[in-house]
Design a protein that fits this description.
The chain is of the alpha/beta class. It is built from eleven helices and seven strands. Strand 5, helix 9 (about 195-200) and strand 6 (about 205-210) form a beta-alpha-beta unit. The protein starts with a helix and ends in an 11-residue tail after the last helix. Strands 4-3-2-1-5-6-7 form a seven-stranded mixed β-sheet, sandwiched between helices. Helix 3 (about 55-70) packs antiparallel against helix 4 (about 75-85). It is globular and about 50 Å long.
Length: about 240
C-alpha cells in the first residue's frame, strides 16, 4: 500500500499511469471484466440526463458529486435524486437512451475482450430501462442496474427492488464470477466513484478510471486518461490485438 500510494502521487505529477501487479502471468489470467457504467463505460451520468428534462439538472448534479466523493449514503442520495423525476413521461427514457455516448475506446475495449474470450459485465447505479439496449448491442454477458417505477406511463419518482449501491455491486461481481466459473482473483473491476469501492477492492485487479480520490486510494491502479481502452494495456493486451470499434 505505501508503494502504491507513492507511485500514484508520482503518476499524477508526471502524467502517466502506473499499474502494480505481482510478477508472473497474473494479468493474462483474468477472465471477467466488470465495468461501472456512468462516467466509466459511458460519458456522463444518466440520472442527470433524465433530470435535465425536469429542469433539475444542476440540483441533481450537486447531489451526484457528493455521493461519488463518498460524502453521502448512495441509496439515500439516489432516492433523493430520483424523486425529482416524478411526473416525467416515460417516453423520456428512450430519448435519453438515444443520447448516451460511449466513453472513447469503450467499444474497442469490449470487442477486444470478447474476441480474446473474456466475459464482460456492467453494474450501474443508473437505470436498467436506459442501459439494457446498449448492453444488448455491445453483447455484454451481464448487466445489473436500478429499476425506475412507472405508473400509467409516468415516472413516479421512485425505484423498485434492490438498490444497486456499493455493497450490491460487489455482490453482483461475485455472482458473475461464480456463474462464469472463475475465481475472484481472475476478475477485474473498473469504476470511477466511491460507489465502486467494494467492487474494486474485491476484484483480483481494481482499476480506478478518472476516479474520485476516495476510489484512487484503494484501487490497484488508476487510469487518468479519457480512453477506456487503456484498460487493455493494463491487462497486458498488446495494441496489435485490439479490435476496431
Amino acid at each position: 500500500a505505501p508503494v502504491r500510494q507513492a507511485l500514484a502521487e508520482l503518476a499524477q505529477q508526471i502524467g502517466i499511469d502506473i499499474a502494480i501487479e505481482p510478477a508472473g502471468l497474473g494479468r493474462r489470467s483474468k477472465r471477467l471484466v466488470c465495468f461501472d457504467c456512468d462516467s466509466t463505460l459511458i460519458q456522463g451520468e444518466v440520472i442527470e440526463m433524465l433530470a435535465a428534462h425536469a429542469g433539475k439538472e444542476d440540483e441533481v448534479a450537486a447531489v451526484t458529486a457528493r455521493a461519488m466523493r463518498g460524502e453521502l449514503d448512495f441509496e439515500a442520495s439516489l432516492r433523493e435524486r430520483v424523486a425529482v423525476l416524478e411526473g416525467l413521461d416515460a417516453a423520456i427514457i428512450d430519448e435519453v437512451a438515444r443520447e448516451i455516448q460511449l466513453t472513447p475506446g469503450a467499444r474497442e475495449t469490449i470487442a477486444t475482450l470478447k474476441r480474446i474470450g473474456y466475459r464482460t459485465a456492467v453494474v450501474s447505479g443508473g437505470f436498467i430501462e436506459v442501459l439494457e439496449g446498449l448492453a444488448a448491442e455491445m453483447e455484454l454477458d451481464y448487466v445489473r442496474a436500478n429499476t425506475l417505477e412507472i405508473v400509467d406511463g409516468k415516472l413516479t419518482g421512485r425505484v423498485t427492488g434492490k438498490v444497486v449501491d456499493r455493497k450490491a455491486k460487489e455482490e453482483f461481481l461475485r455472482e458473475f464470477a461464480a456463474d462464469s466459473g472463475v475465481s475472484m482473483q481472475q476478475t477485474v473491476a473498473v469504476g470511477d466513484g466511491a460507489n465502486d469501492i467494494d467492487m474494486i477492492t474485491a476484484a483480483g485487479l481494481g482499476i480506478a478510471f478518472n476516479a474520485k480520490p476516495a476510489l484512487q486510494e484503494v484501487a490497484d491502479t488508476s487510469v487518468n486518461h479519457r480512453r477506456l481502452d487503456e484498460v487493455l494495456q493494463i491487462l497486458g493486451i498488446p495494441a496489435e490485438e485490439v479490435v476496431d470499434g
